[in-house]
């Protein structure tokens, strides 16, 4: 938990009106959700070092605000893969949202559209691409795991296209599932009344429909460990949807993503749920951005809880950020209204951060507006 | 004979008399006990995660001394001159709003304590006593802290009143185009208690600012801060007053240079008591960059987290011409009114004098960069020694 009275204090009967920051939803979710469900969402892998670090690393990046600049008009609109959105804060894919709240992905979709931003739907959603599309207009991306059965993958991609989804976020950090020890101890299974809706109606071939929780674990076991760059090429042959490579954290893989025609990169460590002891995404970001040399946009997820976090990511070169856990925690706490509130709070905080830093548009946010630890150690970019 | 007790800065008892307070920080816990939660939280809070609030203190503890020994320190002179005004020590009072919330006498008590200590008091624009009332306490060197409002007529009237009341300089707050997010105040739904008012706005031709109730006025006034404020407004201010203008809230080299170019009389390195943008550096961490960029052309002061004489010394060693103290004043007011503020100024004076003596410095000019070392120094950036 972070230092400071604001984020650590809450009361059991806190009403939404009294919630003053995104992190407060986590404690409410913990109270409301069954342990197995909360632990599934909250956990990281093994020692959870990276889980903590994803937050801590932001607190080591400081600001260099510029004063006496007219900040009466702040414009935080931006364009992602050609799609105009109201702010560079988007929704990351997180699985099984109906475990958090009966409205699940419907609520998230509505909140994202109301906020004028992008929602990424998880392959392991408890609502299908069609159901999410049925909530009304909105820009949506589809997160994809590549399964051993490529026909299943092809069907998923077709359905996403037909449902009007605009891009694929290909998860590349999960050839095998990371060791989330709480899930192991809890023997996590998807509650029996829920199902992975994107697999309903598919010709599953070898994936036979056992029980729902059985399907979930079967699906997890079907992730293709052979996944490699040639599969990115294959994916490009079966769809014209732009492909974001989600889970790149090195300069080498950043170059390969560019060379392989990816439409973008999401610097991600899968919410610290895969390989423990990877750097925080905010720490890895600059290396990936530099290696991409401006040839594709680089986004970030992992640990974004404050408007100040969003600003820091943009200052270090991210074109936008995605938020994961705050969505499921606010769903659990307050359904669609909770997710709307999270997006509103991040928008308001980010806008204020821009104003207090002297930035009136995203283009005004530069590397000189932040100081990293590397800067302090004397590798100083020129300031004047 | 009472048993000796270990007194930490956190320890205090309900029966603590002024004689038993041994450092400035002890007033905070007393104030917390005495004040209603909403009032204490208003004074004590920082923005959002309060990282900078904590850091403003922590950063001082990472700066260490290189004391020189076997120097005659029998006579210590800590007097100095600020904007041409002689004061007894380089420790001044920062503007803090609404001091009558802390104690009935409010700004009167602070003014008297400052004058008695021979130092400068800065009056907040959002004071619960007017410039005239503060001036009426008797002679003293006073600065006026200014927010620039959308209605420039209001600003002009405020400046005129401050001039007529004998105030000597303007401290222009530049880090607040919008109010920072102090989450305690949001949760508490902070309002100015109804029996108090922002006295500098009484009697003004407020135009669009109408006088609803007092707490309404306070929130209205906060909403009237002009977000368009920029360097050209410094020029405008210079055209309506000949009082020197200190730019309060500069923390970068670039803005230090702009301050010099704009004709500002000085800079106060400040992060508004960590109440504006969270995750800015501690002011003591930002100080050296600003001092270096100012190139000695204008004085650079500091506020934020000063609680010890050792803190004052460190700021001067890093190039500050003086420091301002904020929260210690309101906490001391809450604890003991004027006597508390007098005590805070006395304790800081005595600690600073002792620090000078133990550091081998007999005047402020003796305090040099070589008397301290920072983390930057330890990481191998060479420090001139001889």
UniProtKB/TrEMBL annotation, chain A:
Residue ranges occupied by any FMN hydroxy acid dehydrogenase domain in the UniProt entry: 14-375
Q: What is this protein called?
A: (S)-2-hydroxy-acid oxidase
Tell me the InterPro entries matching this sequence: Alpha-hydoxy_acid_DH_FMN, FMN-dep_DH, FMN_HAD, FMN_hydac_DH_AS
Where in or outside the cell it occurs: the entry states:
Peroxisome
Q: Which GO terms describe its cellular component?
A: peroxisome
Mind listing the GO biological process terms from this record?
oxidative photosynthetic carbon pathway
Going by the UniProt record, its keywords in alphabetical order are: Flavoprotein, FMN, Glycolate pathway, Oxidoreductase, Peroxisome, Photorespiration
Pathway listed for it is:
Photosynthesis; photorespiration; glycine from 2-phosphoglycolate: step 2/3
Instruction: Tell me one GO molecular function of this protein.
Output: FMN binding
Reactions that this protein is recorded to catalyse = glycolate + O2 = glyoxylate + H2O2
- State which Enzyme Commission number(s) the record gives: 1.1.3.15
Cofactor(s) needed, names only, are: FMN
Q: Which organism is it from?
A: Zizania palustris
TrEMBL record, chain B:
Annotated Gene Ontology cellular components are: peroxisome
Known pathway:
Photosynthesis; photorespiration; glycine from 2-phosphoglycolate: step 2/3
The record ties this protein, via InterPro entries, to: Alpha-hydoxy_acid_DH_FMN, FMN-dep_DH, FMN_HAD, FMN_hydac_DH_AS
Gene Ontology molecular-function annotations? (S)-2-hydroxy-acid oxidase activity; FMN binding
* Coiled-coil intervals, chain numbering: none
The cellular location(s) given in this protein's UniProt record come to: Peroxisome
Q: Which residues form the signal peptide?
A: none
User: Which Pfam families does the annotation name?
Assistant: FMN_dh (PF01070)
Q: Name one GO biological process term.
A: oxidative photosynthetic carbon pathway
Give the source's domain of life in one word: Eukaryota
Q: Does the keyword Flavoprotein apply?
A: yes
Which cofactors, if any, are listed as required?
FMN
Entry keyword set: Flavoprotein, FMN, Glycolate pathway, Oxidoreductase, Peroxisome, Photorespiration
What Enzyme Commission number does this protein have? Answer: 1.1.3.15
Question: Residues in domain FMN hydroxy acid dehydrogenase?
Answer: 16-377
Chief location of this protein within or outside the cell: other
What's its catalytic activity? glycolate + O2 = glyoxylate + H2O2
Stated name of the protein = (S)-2-hydroxy-acid oxidase
Organism encoding this protein = Zizania palustris
């Amino acid at each position: 938990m972070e230092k400071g009275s604001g984020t650590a204090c809450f009361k059991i009967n806190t009403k939404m009106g009294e919630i003053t920051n995104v992190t407060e939803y986590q404690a409410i979710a913990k109270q409301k959700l069954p342990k197995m469900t909360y632990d599934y969402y909250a956990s990281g892998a093994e020692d959870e070092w990276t889980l903590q670090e994803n937050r801590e690393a932001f607190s080591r990046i400081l600001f260099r605000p510029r004063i006496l600049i007219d900040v009466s008009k702040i414009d935080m609109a931006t364009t992602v893969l050609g799609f105009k959105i109201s702010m560079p804060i988007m929704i990351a894919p997180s699985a099984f949202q109906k475990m958090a709240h009966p409205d699940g992905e419907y609520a998230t979709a509505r909140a994202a559209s109301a906020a004028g931003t992008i929602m990424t739907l998880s392959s392991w959603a408890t609502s299908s691409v069609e159901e999410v599309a049925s909530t009304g207009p909105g820009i949506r991306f589809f997160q994809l795991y590549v399964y051993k059965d490529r026909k299943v993958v092809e069907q998923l991609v077709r359905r996403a296209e037909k449902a009007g989804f605009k891009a694929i976020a290909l998860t590349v950090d999960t050839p095998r599932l990371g060791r989330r020890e709480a899930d192991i101890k809890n023997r996590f299974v998807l509650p029996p009344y829920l199902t992975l809706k994107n697999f309903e109606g598919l010709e599953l071939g070898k994936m036979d429909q056992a029980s729902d929780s059985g399907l979930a674990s079967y699906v997890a076991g079907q992730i293709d460990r052979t996944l490699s760059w040639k599969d990115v090429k294959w994916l490009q042959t079966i769809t014209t949807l732009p492909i974001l490579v989600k889970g790149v954290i090195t300069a080498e893989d950043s170059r390969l993503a560019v060379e392989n025609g990816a439409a973008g990169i999401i610097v991600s460590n899968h919410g610290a749920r895969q390989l423990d002891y990877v750097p925080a995404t905010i720490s890895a970001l600059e290396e990936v951005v530099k290696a991409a040399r401006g040839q594709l946009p680089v986004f970030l997820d992992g640990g974004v809880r404050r408007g100040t976090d969003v600003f820091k990511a943009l200052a270090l070169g991210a074109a936008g950020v995605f938020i994961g856990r705050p969505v499921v925690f606010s769903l659990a706490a307050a359904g669609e209204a909770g997710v709307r509130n999270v997006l509103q709070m991040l928008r308001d905080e980010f806008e204020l951060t821009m104003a207090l830093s002297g930035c009136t548009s995203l283009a005004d946010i530069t590397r000189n507006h932040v100081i990293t630890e590397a800067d302090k150690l004397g590798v100083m970019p020129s300031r004047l």
